[in-house]
Amino acid sequence: MLEIVPVPAFTDNYIWLVHDAASGETAVVDPGDAAPVLAEAERRRWSIGQVWNTHWHPDHTGGNLAIKQSTGARISGPASGNIAGQDVALSEGDTINIGNHAGRVIEVPGHTLDHIALVFDEDQVAFVGDTLFAMGCGRLFEGTPEQMFNSLGRLSALPDDTRLYCAHEYTLANARFAAHTEPDNSEITARLSEVEDLRAAGAITLPTTVVQERETNVFVRATKVEEFARLRAEKDSFRS
Ligand SMILES: [Zn+2]
Questions:
Q1: Distance of alpha carbon 84 from alpha carbon 91, whole angstroms
Q2: The pLDDT of residue 81
């Protein structure tokens, strides 16, 4: 079984430490900052052997070089030519491994053009970076609405119980927008209330699951690209 631990960074990023007890191997997903990751790994006596990046943004890659320098970790990420210290360029269909666990690479452009997600089918775990957030999705910095609509479609087509590890704590703002968009959706209303309680207690709201997103994520629930594009534009200017 994979042990997956959040390391908070900056104001709302989560860097995920992934540990396989059977092999003793550890990987880190999207280390925007090295210091908190190295400290948490040290505290747990885990030695980081790999860095996995989902996209090039500095709040996901800024710690790459310092982690590599300190641990010798091998850095895998999308083949955008923009990943600091990259050793392995990943594209659709490639596989990454930790112990006996295999993750497949799927390309999910939209937030950036190079964005990938890492799907561990047997573990029912996916690292989705800034593509899908709990009750939300990433902004379209580089890609088109159609690309993002298709990318969300691929992630939400994973099995119901798949746990989705997103890279930011945006759930409360997303839940407020969702409740504004679908005021009569009782699943959304109930989740908003849960998320308010979790955040009031300073607790993390992740991971989420595919089935939860199908029920409460208005971007995933959009059935046409035009509807998705309208929601994304509304959310960009929404003040809760
Ligand atoms: Zn990003």
A1: 17
A2: 84
